[in-house]
Design brief:
alpha/beta, 4-stranded antiparallel β-sheet, globular, about 25% strand, Rossmann fold
């Protein structure tokens, strides 16, 4: 991949300011402030119920804070209606899920190209971009293969290509190695590390300290809805 600056107009790709998220009487997040600069790779870690998933949902615009502000890619998500949030998700972020979320009845290339078409690209342009990404991620020869016939690592590469289709300012990875065997997990870790080396901003939610060590330059530890620690880490690449 060629290294390009996709983050014009703002230094901070993510900026959360005093964010609180309540579910009834329970505060899933309580006064969280977090900034992620362009080109950073940040891993969010913590036990189940600590607030990691809530944080990810707020950054991706799938949920709204009870108070505080969430700004991603220069866009204050609090000022967007549901249609605006949907457009934001398509244009500004890409998401890599633990269980891939591929469409079983479409071959790999069509799974990838569909993301572009949903954002308004013509089918031919979406397929061209999809083929470009498949080549860059080393799976061009799997273009016509259906998800069921792909290995776990290949499926996650297809899912990553889909997430990168619209050149997102931010790539979110939610437990990206959680459903993979050790070998496939190592491949995905290296893929994420390589993407960050090329300038892609990453926010990774994980329980896996190996993933955080290999892919992240910062580790944010969350406990009881608050940031307990925010530290730099040596990246083993």
């Amino acid at each position: 991949m060629t290294k390009t600056d996709r983050h014009t107009g703002t230094t901070d790709v993510v900026r959360l300011t005093d964010v609180r998220k309540d579910f009834g009487d329970y505060a899933a997040l309580d006064g969280v402030s977090l900034t992620i600069g362009a080109g950073e790779a940040v891993a969010v870690m913590g036990p189940s119920g600590s607030g990691k998933s809530t944080l990810l949902n707020l950054v991706s615009g799938l949920d709204r804070p009870s108070s505080g502000s969430v700004v991603v890619g220069g866009q204050d998500l609090g000022g967007l209606d549901e249609k605006g949030l949907a457009l934001f998700r398509r244009r500004t972020i890409g998401v890599v899920f633990q269980f891939f979320n591929l469409l079983d009845d479409l071959p790999a290339l069509d799974n990838i190209a569909l993301a572009g078409q949903l954002s308004g690209l013509k089918a031919s342009a979406a397929r061209e971009r999809g083929l470009e990404l498949m080549g860059e991620l080393g799976i061009a020869d799997r273009r016509d293969v259906y998800p069921a016939a792909l290995s776990g690592g290949e499926r996650q590469r297809v899912a990553t290509a889909r997430a990168l289709m619209n050149r997102p300012a931010l790539l979110l990875a939610d437990e990206p190695t959680g459903a993979l065997d050790s070998r496939s997990g190592e491949q995905v870790m290296q893929l994420l590390a390589d993407l960050n080396e090329l300038g892609q901003t990453l926010l990774i939610v994980t329980h896996d300290p190996r993933l955080a060590a290999q892919c992240a330059r910062r580790v944010v530890e969350v406990a009881d809805g608050r940031i307990a620690r925010d530290r730099s880490t040596a990246v083993a690449r």
